[in-house]
Each structure stands twice: as C-alpha cells, then as structure tokens.
Design goal:
This protein is mainly alpha-helical. 50% of the residues lie in helices and 0% in strands. It contains six helices and no strands. α2 runs antiparallel to α3. The longest helix is centred in the C-terminal third of the chain and has 16 residues. It is elongated. This is Small ribosomal subunit protein mS41 SAM domain-containing protein.
Length: 111
C-alpha cells in the first residue's frame, strides 16, 4: 500500500505515465521458445523425455501415426511392452498436447 502511494506521488511529481522505465526498473526479455512446426512420434516422445524416447521405433512400427498415439489407451501401450513410468508420461503429455497446453520444443531432443 505504501509502495503504491510512493509510486503515485512520484508519478504526479514527475508528470509521467505508468511505465517501468520511468521508475528506473529494468525490463527483462527472454528469447521466445522455438517449437516444432510438424510434430511426429519421434519429436513427441523426444520432447517428453524421461526415457520415453527409447520406444520410438516400437511405437512407430506398431502405431504409425501421432494422432493414433494421442487417442491410445494404456492397455494397448502395456501390450506393446512399454513400462508403467513411460506409459504415464506418454498419456499425460498426450492429453496436454491435445488440449494445446504443451508442445515439444526443438531444443528438447538430444541426439
């Protein structure tokens, strides 16, 4: 409360608008994250990390398409021999990807 009054009185004395530069505060800008334009199964599993990228070849041969992977159930992943930890990661990030809350980043894949 006291801080806002101090800022308001300083602005009134200086006759400036509400800006960070007028208060002498630095502005921090970060480099925007780069995302894949076209996401396939290797980019998706590599972006998840946590060891899920070890199953890229198996999932590509059995499922073949990212859309099919996104609607896949846990029992089918279990039948493919994918461990529980990796199944949970795939299903969790698949749901986030469908809702538009997460996308794999370009720098996330380490070759």
């Amino acid at each position: 409360m006291a801080w806002t009054r101090l800022c308001q009185s300083a602005r009134a004395a200086l006759g400036t608008t509400n800006s960070c530069s007028s208060l002498g505060l630095p502005r921090f800008y970060s480099k925007p994250a780069t995302y894949f334009v076209k996401v396939g199964i290797p980019e998706f599993l590599g972006g998840i990390g946590g060891g899920a990228e070890t199953h890229i070849a198996k999932i590509e041969t059995e499922i073949g398409d990212l859309h099919k992977l996104l609607v896949l159930r846990t029992l089918r992943l279990k039948k493919l021999g994918i461990p529980c930890k990796h199944r949970k990661l795939i299903l969790k990030y698949g749901q986030k990807y469908r809702l538009g809350l997460w996308r794999p980043r370009v720098d996330a894949i380490k070759t």
